[in-house]
UniProtKB/TrEMBL annotation:
GO terms for biological process: regulation of transcription by RNA polymerase II. Pfam families: Cyclin_N. Belongs to the cyclin family. GO terms for molecular function: cyclin-dependent protein serine/threonine kinase regulator activity. This is Cyclin-like domain-containing protein. Transmembrane segments: none annotated. Residues 36-136, 158-242 form the Cyclin-like domain. Keywords: Cyclin. SMART domains: CYCLIN.
Amino acid sequence: MINDIILINKENIKTPSEKKNVPKIDEIKLRIYACQLLQEAGIILKRKAVTIATSQVLFHRFYFKKSLTDFDVKIIAPSSLYLACKLEENFCSVYKIINTFYFLYKYEELKSKHYYFDEYKDMKVEIFTYELLILKDIGFLIHRINQHPHSFLLPYIHSLFNNLNQFDNEMTKKLAQISWGFLNDSMRTTLCCEYQPRCIAVASIFLAAYKLNIPLIKETNWFKLFDVDYDDIKKICIRILQLYKIGRCHYINILTKEK
């Protein structure tokens, strides 16, 4: 489709981190950890959902170009959010972003730490530096990567269920809420770089429908309405469900040099 986003090659390709012998599970957990931070920081700062999603896409894309051993997620995450706020015209002071991430880091460590002016100033400089590096590494093609599954969700649910009398408004509202939750969770994975947004939206609807015992039977070919392959739906669902087995993730220091 003409508006499809640029995807990474998910077949037989190693990420920069894997090439530097980072265990796959460690990369997965660090990506989840950073996306948790981005979600929490975005909520604290009252940023729009699209801004948070954009920051997570930027973060994931960056680490398909760079290794986790060379660039600390604790600075790339706030840099991604700062850049996302600009791209989505949902502006936020760099000082508020720094304060919020420091708060989240302190909360995680469960100890109080005072950050002195020089350290605070260093993080500001790093954020300004890395937002430009992120832009450079994604090739300034923001318009070709920055489309989110969230924008497809409600129209797709409307198309599927609006004319079916057996599903009332309350049921479809609940379906939308649960689907939205699955979408938000999917952003902690690299699905946003591997599948078109409409595929992730449809998979989230499928998971929510299953949870609510709403039959979406393969034989009816309902998914073809959205130009989505059923095998892709299954693969995406499996990836989302695997998140819940992993659970909440914490920081792992795998840096090979100080930044």
